C-alpha cells in the first residue's frame, strides 16, 4: 500500500461487470414465461436497470412482471423495447417510493437469530405496504407482524394477516377439508427487504402461526395465494411447512392509465370493477386489461394445530372465477 502525507491511498474502485449486450431490434421478442423465469434476455435487462437506478432487483422484477401483461400480445410475446421501457418506468416509480419512506428502510444486515419478532403497528405497516409492496396498498383491518432489527427496530420482513374474505376459497376449504367459514385467516401481504437474511419469510410465518394459535384460538387455518405470473414459486411457504391445496383460475390483470389496479382497488376508487362501465363513466381514463393467458394462482394452506396434510395433485381442485 502506498502511504502519503494525507494517509493511505484510497483503494482502487472496481467497476461492476459489464452487462452483456442484448438485441433490441424491432424483431427481438421475449415471452412472458421468459420474463417470469428470468431467462438471459430479461435477466440482463433487469440487472442493467438495477445498476442504473439503484433499486432492489427482486422488487423491480415483481413490479415489472405485474405490468408486462398489459403490453403482451395474446400469445404472450412482447418486444424488448417495451420491456426496457417498462423496467425503466417501474424503476423510477420504485425509487420515488423508496425515498418517500426512507426512514423505514433498514440498511444493515443481521443474522436471522438477531432479529426480533413483534406485532407491527398499522402506521408503519401501511406505509411500507402502500409504497413498496407490488400492490401498493395495505389490507384494511389486518393484524401485522414483523421481524425487526435489534438496533433500530426497523422491519426487515413483515406480513399482514386478516380473516379470509375469498368466499370461493373458503367454501372449498370447508367442503373438502372441514374448516368452517370464518375459521380460516389469510396472509394477504408479505414484504421482505433486500437486507433480510435467508429464510426470514418462512421464520416469520412460523412465528405468526404460533401467536395466532395462542391468541385467536378460533382460527384453525392460515391461507395465502401465490401468483406465479410474478415469479413467485411458494418456496418460503413450503419451507414453513405449508402445503399446496388447490389452484384458482387466473383472471386478466386490470390497469388504469397504465398502472395495475386490483378489482378491490377499482371498487374502492370507482365503485365498480367492470371495465366497460368504468370507460363509460370515466371517459378521460384509460382502463385496460391484459390479453395474454396468465397462469393460475396457487392456494397454500397451513393448519394451526397438528400437521398440515399434503394433497396429491390429482385431488387438488381448480376453482373457477
Task: Count every beta strand, where a strand is a DSSP E run of 2 or more residues.
Answer: 15
Strand content: 15-25%
Classify the secondary structure makeup into a structural class: alpha+beta
Rg, rounded, reads 22 Å
Mean pLDDT value? 92
First and last CA, distance:
67 Å
Sheet with most strands: 8 strands, mixed
Spans where pLDDT lies below 50 across 5 or more residues = 1-14
Order of helices and strands: EEEHHHEHEHEEHEHEHEEEHHEEE
The helicity comes to 25-40%
Overall geometry comes to globular
In which order are the strands of the major sheet placed? 5-6-7-8-9-14-10-15
**How many helices does DSSP assign?**
10
How are the SSEs placed, and which strands pair?
Elements: E1 3-4, E2 7-8, E3 29-31, H1 32-36, H2 40-53, H3 57-67, E4 77-79, H4 80-100, E5 116-120, H5 122-132, E6 143-148, E7 155-163, H6 167-177, E8 184-192, H7 200-215, E9 221-226, H8 235-239, E10 243-248, E11 254-256, E12 259-260, H9 263-270, H10 275-281, E13 287-289, E14 297-303, E15 317-319
Helix pairs in contact: 2-4, 3-4
Keywords summarizing the entry:
eight-stranded mixed sheet; 321 residues; alpha+beta; 34% helix; three-stranded antiparallel sheet; disordered N terminus
Structural overview:
With 321 residues, the chain is α+β, with helices and mostly antiparallel strands. It is 34% helix and 21% strand. It contains ten helices and 15 strands. The protein has helices at 32-36, 40-53, 57-67, 80-100, 122-132, 167-177, 200-215, 235-239, 263-270, 275-281; strands spanning 3-4, 7-8, 29-31, 77-79, 116-120, 143-148, 155-163, 184-192, 221-226, 243-248, 254-256, 259-260, 287-289, 297-303, 317-319. It has an eight-stranded mixed sheet, sandwiched between helices. β1 and β2 form a beta hairpin. α2 (40-53) runs parallel beside α4 (80-100) and α3 crosses α4. Residues 1-14 have low confidence and may be disordered.
